[in-house]
Design a protein that fits this description.
The chain is built from eight helices and eleven strands. The protein has about 270 residues and is an alpha+beta fold. The protein has two domains: about 5-75, Multidrug-efflux Transporter Regulator, Chain: A, Domain 2 (Orthogonal Bundle), CATH 1.10.1660.10; about 120-260, Multidrug-efflux Transporter 1 Regulator Bmrr, Chain A (Alpha-Beta Barrel). Helix 4 packs antiparallel against helix 5. The chain starts with a strand and ends in a 7-residue tail after the last strand.
């Protein structure tokens, strides 16, 4: 006589295969209630059904076996909930990255729209700016922190144009380089990291990227191809102007980012 459910019976009740239950056992996630020392048969109890189903759900969500084991070994409900919440947060981030990549890929697979490019002479101008040498992967965080500090330093001043950025080629070619974020104001202060900075005069090929920053590289590629095809390219930092951005609207489809690629032309504009 034995007390409990055979592995086959337990598999039927949990709708998990015998192979899966054996894997859970071997991985230390769900041991049978008893194992017959003579035959090696595994026996389970009905009280183990919820645990088996929880493990199955966590594995369906891609939680690594190690983290599943940690969660099951944690007696505190709040700690278990925190482990699950952390994993769900990672899943949501991955899902957002996947959605973004799918949207960009669909755009790339469509025939490219006719690129509207303006050739423009930008005069030298003095702005309130924060500069830094930044790793490419840290650029979004650096940018957001710099913008917040910049706007705080300009409280009470009239901003006379859209926020802008200027980025060295090395930021893209080697993964680290100089970056500048700035605002146009009449009297740039020197507060914290904010300093007056004179942007040099430049000739630029300019286009407007419509939509979120996640596929900004597509517009960069199209503009770069235009500049190269027309033999206009010169070395120099690219410029961006944030005509409509996240501080104007939460709708990414409404964002408008002007990209200025440095060029050389012998004919006047």
């Amino acid at each position: 006589m034995h007390a409990g459910l055979t592995i086959g019976e337990f598999a039927q009740l949990t709708q998990l295969s015998i192979r899966t239950l054996r894997r859970y056992h071997e991985g230390g996630l769900l041991a049978p209630a008893t194992v017959d020392p003579g035959s090696g048969y595994r026996y389970y109890t009905t009280e183990q059904i919820p645990a088996a189903q929880i493990i199955h759900r966590l594995r369906e969500l891609g939680m690594p076996l190690r983290e599943v084991g940690e969660m099951l070994a944690t007696p505190d409900p709040d700690s278990r909930a925190a482990l699950v919440a952390a994993h769900l947060g990672r899943l949501e981030s991955e899902l957002e990255r996947t959605r973004t990549a799918v949207t960009s890929l669909r755009r790339l697979l469509q025939p490219p729209p006719q690129l509207a490019v303006e050739l423009r002479a930008e005069p030298a101008r003095t702005v309130a700016a924060i500069t830094g040498t930044v790793d490419r992967c840290e650029l979004p965080r650096w940018f957001n922190e710099a913008v917040a500090e910049l706007r705080a330093a300009l409280t009470g001043q009239e901003i006379t144009g859209p926020a802008g950025g200027m980025y060295d080629n090395e930021l893209f070619t080697t993964g680290a380089g100089g970056a500048v974020v700035y605002h146009r104001v009449d009297h740039p202060p020197a507060v914290g990291r904010v300093r007056p900075l004179t942007l040099p005069a430049a000739e630029l090929a300019v286009t407007v990227h419509r939509g979120p920053y996640s596929d900004l590289d597509i517009s960069y590629g199209q503009l770069g191809a235009y500049v190269t095809d027309h033999a206009l390219a010169v070395a120099g930092p690219v410029r961006e102007a944030y005509l409509v951005w996240s501080r104007d609207t939460a709708d990414p489809d409404s964002w408008r980012t002007e990209i200025g690629w440095p060029i050389f032309r012998v004919s006047p504009i």
